[in-house]
């Protein structure tokens, strides 16, 4: 089984970003850099993330807590990301 590499894309709306693939120890710095580049409040859709470990949740928590990157986490119901966000109690929206 091949894991899809981590990617972040602004598809059509500059205030909405979709993340794809596995957020693992090899891509965590890329996730941090991606969030650090945000200049406006951004909805971050995690629906197509295939691996979402605690280190990634920590990056999102820090981004939401420090206020410099205003993000809203989103996920489709039943996805890996939505289940992880629900179980951990991280605030998120269903899309």
Walkthrough of the structure:
With 95 residues, the protein is of the alpha/beta class. It has three helices and five strands, in the order E-E-H-E-H-E-H-E. It has a five-stranded mixed β-sheet with strand order 1-2-3-4-5, with helices on one face. Helix 1 packs parallel to helix 2. The longest helix is centred in the middle third of the chain and has 13 residues.
Produce the secondary structure layout.
Layout: E1 7-9, E2 16-22, H1 28-36, E3 42-51, H2 54-66, E4 71-75, H3 80-88, E5 93-94
Parallel strand pairs: 2-3, 3-4, 4-5
Antiparallel strand pairs: 1-2
Mean pLDDT: 91
The total of beta strands comes to 5
Tally the helices.
3
**Molecular shape:** globular
Largest sheet, in brief, is: 5 strands, mixed
Structural class: alpha/beta
- This entry's quaternary arrangement is single chain
Radius of gyration from the CA trace? 12 Å
Element order: H for helix, E for strand:
EEHEHEHE
Uncertain runs:
none
Measured distance between first and last alpha carbons: 28 Å
Strand content: 25-35%
Percentage of residues in helical conformation: 25-40%
- List the strand order in the largest sheet: 1-2-3-4-5
């Amino acid at each position: 089984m091949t894991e899809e590499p981590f990617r972040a894309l602004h598809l059509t709306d500059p205030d909405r970003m979709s993340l794809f693939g596995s957020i693992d120890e090899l891509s965590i710095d890329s996730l941090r850099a991606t969030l650090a580049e945000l200049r406006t409040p951004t909805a971050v859709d995690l629906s197509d993330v295939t691996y979402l470990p605690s280190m990634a949740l920590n990056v999102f928590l820090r981004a939401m807590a420090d206020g410099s990157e205003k993000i809203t986490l989103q996920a489709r119901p039943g996805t890996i990301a939505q289940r992880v966000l629900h179980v951990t109690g991280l605030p998120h929206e269903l899309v």
